[in-house]
Amino acid sequence: MVGDGSGGTSSPTAGASSKSDNAGRATTDDGGGSAGEEPLAASDAGSAGEGGSGDGGTTSLPACQPIYTSCDSLCGPVHDPCTGLDLECGVCADGLACDRDTHRCSTAKLTCAALGAACGRIRNTCGQRLDCGDCPDGQECDPDTNQCTTCSAPTCADLGIECGTAWLGCGSSKISTDCGTCAIGKVCNPAYNRCEPAPKAAGGQCVPKSTAELCAVKNAECGYISDGCGGTVKCGDCPVGKDCATDGIANRCGPPEASWQCIVEQRECGKTMATCGGKLVDCGTCSKPDVCNSNGKCGAPCSPKLPALADALECGSFDDGCNGKLAKDCPKTDKGAKEVCKADGSCCVAKTCADDYKNQCGTGLPDGCGATLDCGCGTGGVCSTKAIATTGTCCQKHDCSFYPGQCGTLDDGCGGTITCNTCGSQTCKKASGAVSGTCCDLPVCNGQCGVTLTNACGSRTCSTTSCGSGKQCDTTSATCCTLPACGTQCGVSLSNACGSKACSADCGTGKACTNGNCCALPSCAGACGRTVSNTCGSVDCKCTGTALCQGKTGAQTCCTPRTCSGFYTGKCGTQLDDACGGKLDCGCSGTGNVCSSSATGSAGTCSCPTLKTCADFAGQCGEFPNACGGTVKCTCADHGLPSYDTCGGSQQSGVCGCTKTPCGSHCGNVDDGCGGQVYCGPC
Fold first, then answer.
1. What is the pLDDT of residues 438-480, one digit of tens each?
2. pLDDT per position as a tens digit, 350-406
3. What is the pLDDT of residues 78-90, one digit of tens each?
4. Domain boundaries, the chain
5. Cβ-Cβ contacts under 8 Å for 616 (sequence gap 6 or more)
6. Are 70 and 101 in contact (CB under 8 A)?
7. What is the pTM of this model?
8. What Cα–Cα distance (Å) separates residue 504 from each residue in 184, 203, 485, 501, 519?
9. How many CB atoms lie within 10 A of CB 525?
10. Which residues contact 81 (CB under 8 A, 6 or more apart)?
């Protein structure tokens, strides 16, 4: 089985990353302080007798025992922590997968059910991550076992959640808990469930720093972070070839996670056929000037081939002469399946669940070729035996539809149990000490607050902060009451039997707070350049930006004059109308440019009579002056010549035409004789 940082089984070396020191001895880095130290051999313990250290003696420790000494019955890359030996044990036969922890070929366990995971996230035999769902009400997922356990019932405060709605880890992740609101002057950042200073748009004083400053302070290279004022900013995307937070550090770019198939086959590049699912898996590309050879190794162009010693064996994995391995496969059986290659280089016809264990089931069943099979019972089926390498019979399990209205842990009809969460919006009511129960409805708050209601189903707490907008909890009567509404009133504090509410003095654009009420200020339409008043207040009507106030008293309007760089972009001429009673002289910029119009008040266009084109540079390629203050870029195709030219690299200009060297008997990437390379097909 394959874990996901939690759950599943592990190899004998799980929890420690093995490596070898310069003497070939295995060392172990298990997160403790002894990483890099040599294992204590028997000779290092002294020659003391059987007693403990209390009588002056020392205890003799056993010598390190190798775990893996050969590839017999193993697959994939295998490392022995005792000897430091690294073995390359090849791939599995068609239909089987190499378990990344046990290093043995078996039927791939692809689903949560096959892995025995009831919840959470876990990796399957093929290294793929699976989401095994949530636990039923009252239970939470143990990340180490991927099993549902009794919920520890944490509070918002226990998890450091300050506000908003959040899932606290119990039951379905779709059920959220209201963790309250923030104090006056702060807002809840919903992305992080924490209270932050309110921005100006929400009536506060918080002004977020620029995105560049925020990301630099947090050393964030990608993804989203808080802006400190209740919102978020994006710190960009990772460059091609890297992903965000794949190395476990939030907002940092790291290499993408390698496919388990590529790791098993020790491929550095190219594509390979996945053992699980039969799809192509991309193992990446090589850094130039290396190329990806057909064996999946990066390096100079090389043709992998079997060594002479392979002629004496039926099958196996051999050095291919290109820093990789090359397999000599077994033939296929009469049913189309490939025979299994054993460690001694002989081929073997493996047993199958469909043919040799028909109507049987079990785990670790021998396939006759050194590997094992896990033969299941299909959807909903349960095997009568749990012993390894023992066959049993299948039993069809009940599903939750067999128990309408019931919930919790129920009999599956095959000697086991199933967990049913079929209550929907209801609650699963269990008797004291019972593992199963019935679905029922908890009491409903219906305007009550600050109290805990109880019925035959259970208890529900009605929060003092759950009354909603415009209401608050009257703790005396334990009911939600309606606060006074401001309406058009402003700058005052209103009170009723429920409580007090402060009405903002900010009435919005075009309005003012006068005598405790919001009223409309006079309009500036047709009144620029002077102050207008009404019973609500006064407004100084000024033109904004570059606009000018024009017109007679009583009908004055703002006019924004045209500009050469705006309205007359790309135009030229003298005494051009600026639309506000003025005139503009717009000339031409750039070497050699002249205006097409000489009439006063008439706009023309700028052009350069001496402009040169690629026709003026026949047979040449590159970048040339165009005699008008700019340049013209020419290719050989502009002259009707072959597209290949000598203008690449750092050259500014060159001459067209070069006869490339033909491929002839060459293959791969070869020099084309013209400063470049040409691909001459596979070898």
1. 999 999 988 899 999 999 888 889 988 888 888 889 888 889 9
2. 888 888 888 788 888 888 887 788 888 877 677 888 888 888 888 888 888 888 888
3. 777 777 776 777 6
4. 134-180, 182-249, 397-467, 580-683
5. 624
6. no
7. 0.38
8. 14, 10, 12, 10, 14
9. 9
10. 12, 13, 16, 18, 26, 28, 67
